[in-house]
Amino acid sequence: MVHFEEDNPDDLLGNMVVLGVSLIVIAAVVIGVVAGIDHDDAPLKPEKMTLDAICDLTDYKESCMASLQPVGNYAQVITYFRAAVNATISEMALAMKKAKVDADAVRDDHGSTETTMAFEDCIELIGLCIEELQSVLTMVNATPNLFFKDSGDARSSLSAVLSYQRACLEGLKESRSTSDMDRGLQKPSELASNALAIIYEHSENDDLEADHSIPNWGTGTTDNDGMIYPDRLSAADRKLLHYSYKKGGQMMTPHAVVAKDGSGQYASIAAALNAYPIAHKGRYLIYVRSGVYEENVIISKNITQIFMYGDGVNRTVISGRDFNGTTYRRASLSVIGNGFICKDIGIKIPDKSRGNSMAAVKIQSDSAAFFHCRINGSTTSSISALAHRQFFIDCEIYGVTNIIRGDAAVVIQRSKIIVTQETVPVSANIIALQGRSDKRESTGFVIHGCTIEPDKSSTVSGVLENSAYLGMAVEKYSRTIVMESSLEDIIHPDGWYNNNNYGIETVTFAEYRNKGPGAGTSKRVKWPGYSVINNRSDALRYTAGRFIEAQNWLQGTQVPLQAGLFS
């Protein structure tokens, strides 16, 4: 079993623009799809299907047939997949045009500020959808064989496309907009689902029967001290990560030092991020010295591979500022840029924002990790995990209800989830509100080796007993797994909250080898979508090494990782 333990914390390193998209004519796309398929270094799996058979795999056969008809009635599966992605891009371009027209109409009519911001969010989110789809095409064109062998990145991007569209519509609904943007996104949503269905059915994925062995770390380079680094890391990054482990070794100088007292290069985190060189390659270190930073930190799409660390969760704190805005915008820390790592920082919302939907962390960065962090959000949200893959370890996560919500693929490991109580109690304390809407999405929340407990500092003793639920169905295919965790008596015997019987037949709610007074399963809900996992191989599919392929992007970093099960 692969099990990395981290070194002493004191040895830490030195302690949309929316893309312009032209409409794609499907017939022309097909010509481009058919051309350039052959790659000498990546032989394709010789699999062909009829158009009717390929569309039978999807949930929206009519739109599938219409969009793929230009390819022909018999073609390679990968050719159909490329055409499906390109067709989705075309429809997304139309949705973008509609969103901009509707946004202009709201401004011209002096509509509400909330609706204007919601449309601005939609424009950003649709732009992100287009970028995700284009990245899928790039992946498949560069190494076509990965379509069948390793589709994790492509499925993550297509899942994000579905999540971003829902976030757009939820924001408009929240603002009470009368726009029919849902009609504008109906076809893009169907086509994205179809593309996801095709790659899901023809590639290895996390829903196949789990292997009986723990995932390995893959190939890498071993240095003189025996440390193994992924081959894709640059020499500079290996050196950086090497010194992050080595006691007494030469410490790397952070690229930016933030200090409120003026002793650093920047007085705010935002100023340090604004100075980020867009052409920078590899890790970019930002050291945030002690202080309470009352700012809303945004790691934008083009700011990637940030390693931000502080002096400890009690000493370096991002508290955010309260402001009027959409749920999509309201967070103390918002992260979009990929490869973000955060260590030894407390992240909270302003005290006066506790009663609203402001999140402490909104995360949609792919391959992101938080460790040794304390996260404390509002009454209805602490972590908004919107899309992609994230890993939390050795963290303290405080919240009242809907503590973690969204449609990302998240593993929370070896952390404390602490349920707090407001002066006015909520109807139910719900830990996870996972929002998978398509059964083929690679998303879900996994709580592994954690402790779920009440806030023992609460002035109201015993109020939280039997008040918390592990999760609730917010979408038809919501997926939450709790395994090898300690559940205190705060957990209701039912375990899972009944949302008017919604999704009880289609969700994936499961438990595996939990312990503690709240872990008994004899009185759990009797739903088709709930199960107690008894087979070790079934549990393995939800480990960090399998579910989010964390070994591919955490190896060699300071982030400790249990790739498989703890026992």
Summarize the structure.
Helix content is 29%, strand content 21%.
Written overview of the protein:
Helix 1 (26-34) packs antiparallel against helix 4, helix 3 crosses helix 8 and helix 4 (77-108) packs antiparallel against helix 8 (181-201). The chain has 13 helices and 33 strands. It has a domain at 26-201: Up-down Bundle (Butyryl-CoA Dehydrogenase, subunit A, domain 3). The chain has an eleven-stranded parallel sheet with strand order 6-7-10-13-16-19-22-25-28-31-32, with no helix packed on it. An eight-stranded parallel sheet has the order 8-11-14-17-20-23-26-29, with no helix packed on it. Strands 9-12-15-18-21-24-27-30 form an eight-stranded parallel sheet. The model is unreliable at 1-46 and 208-250 (pLDDT under 50). It is α/β, with parallel strands linked by helices. The radius of gyration is 23 Å and the shape is globular.
Using the alpha-carbon principal axes, give the shape.
Answer: globular
Mean pLDDT reading: 84
CATH topology of the domain at 26-201: Butyryl-CoA Dehydrogenase, subunit A, domain 3
The proportion of strand residues reads: 15-25%
Main sheet: strand order: 6-7-10-13-16-19-22-25-28-31-32
Question: Which spans of ≥5 residues are poorly predicted at pLDDT below 50?
Answer: 1-46, 208-250
Main β-sheet description: 11 strands, parallel
- How many H/I helices? 13
Terminal CA distance reads 10 Å
The CATH superfamily of the domain at 26-201 appears as: Invertase/pectin methylesterase inhibitor family protein
Just name the CATH architecture of the domain at 26-201: Up-down Bundle
The beta-strand count equals 33
Structural classification: alpha/beta
- What Rg is obtained from the alpha carbons, in whole angstroms? 23 Å
Question: Helicity level, as a percent range?
Answer: 25-40%
Broad CATH class of the domain at 26-201: Mainly Alpha
